[in-house]
């Protein structure tokens, strides 16, 4: 009787120990979950939602202010140099100093080296330079100026392709972020689905001569998100100084009067200077480049689809031949299996 009592006591003691350990483990799990929730709430409170408001709207063109989340991705948070005073003329010079290159899908990137061209046309700069300069005067230290310029092509599949991005001043730099450009047709995902927002079409931003991109120290580089892969930094003072000291193409291409032309000039082998400095000619040249690029993209896409169709047809033809070969022996095997009659 005493042995049974001792065994029951030990069993109850072991059961109590197991329950206590289970309760301790559950309590530790709850504490870890509570800590994770508190950290998530703190991070959400620090980053905050992305809010934007439109300040200028002309047709489908929109310019406004939005929350700059790059200011909250570091600790302690950084501030943009906003409000910022800049003239519309200087703003236009800075924006026309940025060029973009890219391609549609992967095929064009394999067969052709993409060439850069201005992000904005002269007509687009006439509309957006002044509103963007005015928006910087109203921007706060945690905001940036966004722009949206739809193209002239019909929407495919749901909305028009557009020039979309943002600008902000920080330290002594001007940053431009580009998320889309209507010059590069999107990759067709099939089934009428929308374009993947992470698809940047191989875009890259460049600084046109004589401007140069700024080299930002790593500790001052903004913390970009996964959707902000295409960006560039400019030093406004250096760009404006370089563009001011370098004469524009229209001045450098002034014709020389016939009386002052020396007979030695043709012997030097210099080509005749062509007046390409007007904004209208530059705009026409940009439009022609865009049309040529679009035609090239369409041609390569058609070639790819034609090649795929040929491959599918050849595969189906081989499958049909194989089925025919499989069916022919069965139709002639029956007479061959009969035993010849006895003599």
Q: Please, what is the average pLDDT?
A: 76
| Annotation, overall tally of beta strands | 9
Largest beta sheet, briefly?
6 strands, antiparallel
Count of helical segments?
8
Helices and strands, in N-to-C order? HEEHEHEHEEEEEHHHH
Residues in helix, % = 40-55%
Radius of gyration: 34 Å
- The gross shape turns out to be flat
Oligomer: single chain
Unreliable residue runs: 41-48, 250-277
Derived from helix and strand composition plus strand pairing, the structural class reads alpha+beta
Sheet with the most strands: spatial strand order:
1-2-5-6-7-9
Question: Per DSSP, what share of the residues sits in E-state strands of 2 or more residues?
Answer: 15-25%
Q: Report the end-to-end length measured between terminal Cα atoms.
A: 101 Å
Describe the fold and architecture.
This protein is α+β, with helices and mostly antiparallel strands. Among the domains are: 21-50; 52-188 and 196-252, no CATH class. It is 44% helix and 15% strand. It has a 6-stranded antiparallel β-sheet. Helix 2 (88-95) packs across helix 4 (122-138). It is flat and about 110 Å long.
What topology does this entry show?
Blueprint: H1 2-47, E1 52-58, E2 61-67, H2 88-95, E3 98-101, H3 107-111, E4 117-118, H4 122-138, E5 143-150, E6 162-170, E7 173-180, E8 204-207, E9 231-234, H5 236-245, H6 249-252, H7 264-267, H8 279-336
Antiparallel strand pairs: 1-2, 2-5, 3-4, 3-8, 5-6, 6-7, 7-9
């Amino acid at each position: 009787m005493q042995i049974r009592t001792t065994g029951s006591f030990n069993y109850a003691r072991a059961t109590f120990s197991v329950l206590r350990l289970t309760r301790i483990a559950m309590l530790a799990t709850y504490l870890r979950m509570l800590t994770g929730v508190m950290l998530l709430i703190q991070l959400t409170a620090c980053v905050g939602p992305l809010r934007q408001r439109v300040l200028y709207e002309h047709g489908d063109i929109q310019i406004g202010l939005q929350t700059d989340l790059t200011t909250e991705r570091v600790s302690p948070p950084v501030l943009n140099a906003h409000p910022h005073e800049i003239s519309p003329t200087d703003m236009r010079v800075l924006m026309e100093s940025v060029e973009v290159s890219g391609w549609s899908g992967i095929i064009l990137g394999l067969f052709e080296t993409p060439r850069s061209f201005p992000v904005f046309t002269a007509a687009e700069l006439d509309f957006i330079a002044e509103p963007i300069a005015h928006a910087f005067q109203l921007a706060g230290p945690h905001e940036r100026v966004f722009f949206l310029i739809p193209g002239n092509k019909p929407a495919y599949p749901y909305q028009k392709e557009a020039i979309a991005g943002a600008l902000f001043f920080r330290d002594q730099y001007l940053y431009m972020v580009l998320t889309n450009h209507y010059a590069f047709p999107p990759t067709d995902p099939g089934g009428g689905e929308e374009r993947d927002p992470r698809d940047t079409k191989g875009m890259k931003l460049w600084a046109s001569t004589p401007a140069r991109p700024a080299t930002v120290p790593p500790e001052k580089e903004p913390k970009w998100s996964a959707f902000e892969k295409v960006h560039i930094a400019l030093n406004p003072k250096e760009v404006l100084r370089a563009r001011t000291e370098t004469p524009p193409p229209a001045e450098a291409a002034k014709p020389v009067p016939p009386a002052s032309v020396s007979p030695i000039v043709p012997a030097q082998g210099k080509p005749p200077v062509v007046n390409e400095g007007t904004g209208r000619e530059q705009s026409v040249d940009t439009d022609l480049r865009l049309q040529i690029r679009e035609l090239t993209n369409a041609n390569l896409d058609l070639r790819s689809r034609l090649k795929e169709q040929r491959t599918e047809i050849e595969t189906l033809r081989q499958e049909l031949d194989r089925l025919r070969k499989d069916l022919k022996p069965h139709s002639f095997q029956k007479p061959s299996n009969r035993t010849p009659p006895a003599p």
